[in-house]
Design goal:
about 240 residues, seven-stranded antiparallel beta sheet, about 55% strand
Length: about 240
């Protein structure tokens, strides 16, 4: 088993007034050659956007982009004609493929929106751009790891152009779970949203990240009430 622990305060940080962003991996003005990616996981940004502000129209291509709101409402628009608002409980994916232009902004003027933006290298390049979104209740996540992102053609969660599965859990203190890695050769990157959790004897606190590879099973225990995101992803070299 191989592990790499990224403590919350070791992440890159950028404050632009309207945007406060923490970068687990190298992004924009933050560059650490030891933290460029974990397998096909390229970006894990923990963003807070003030009321009424946001990211103007900008392009992407050949990247799978997942947005997970943690608080507030995020308004999305893109060049496919899609317009949507995503809220806590929603998971959104955009396959940029051959190229797409999109914008994201806080849908509310009076309160911030907090969300994760995650980029994953695609399995196939130059696909037709597409968008997907699904909602999950608190009951869906309670004391279990609910799949919210899954490969194309599977029915659980939004579909991603990659052999990847994302799972979210809302765990009561004392809850123990076993997680089976979904695909031979995949690794798992765990990101702790809230609380304290022990994974394979490694203790994680709020906003810590843990990459685990060369393992088939993870043992998880919630040391306090906790929220957790697991990203089960191919470990191919993208450097």
């Amino acid at each position: 088993m191989k592990t790499i622990l990224h403590k919350a305060l070791t992440r890159g940080h950028a404050s632009h007034g309207w945007l406060d962003s923490w970068h687990t991996f190298s992004f924009a003005g933050y560059h650490d050659p030891t933290r460029v990616h974990f397998g096909v996981l390229r970006v894990l940004n923990d963003d807070t956007v003030t009321g009424g502000m946001g990211f103007g129209k900008h392009p992407h291509d050949n990247m799978e982009i997942i947005s997970i709101p943690l608080e507030g409402d995020l308004e999305h628009g893109d060049s496919t004609g899609t317009k949507a608002v995503i809220r806590q409980g929603d998971v959104q994916i955009m396959s940029a493929g051959t190229g797409i232009v999109h914008s994201e902004k806080n849908a509310n003027a009076d309160r911030p929106v907090k969300f994760l933006q995650i980029w994953v290298f695609p399995k196939e390049e130059n696909v037709t751009p597409r968008y997907d979104q699904k909602s999950f209740s608190e009951a869906d996540l309670h004391n279990q790891l609910r799949v919210v992102v899954s490969p194309m053609g599977e029915s659980d969660g939004v579909n991603i152009n990659q052999d990847a599965w994302f799972s979210l859990g809302k765990l009561d203190a004392g809850t123990s779970l076993e997680y089976q890695v979904r695909r031979n050769g995949n690794g798992v990157y765990a990101f702790l949203l809230e609380g304290d959790v022990t994974i394979n004897d490694v203790v994680l606190s709020r906003r810590d990240g843990l990459g685990i590879s060369d393992v088939s099973t993870l043992a998880l225990k919630a040391d306090t009430d906790a929220r957790l995101l697991l990203m089960d992803i191919p470990m191919i070299d993208q450097s």
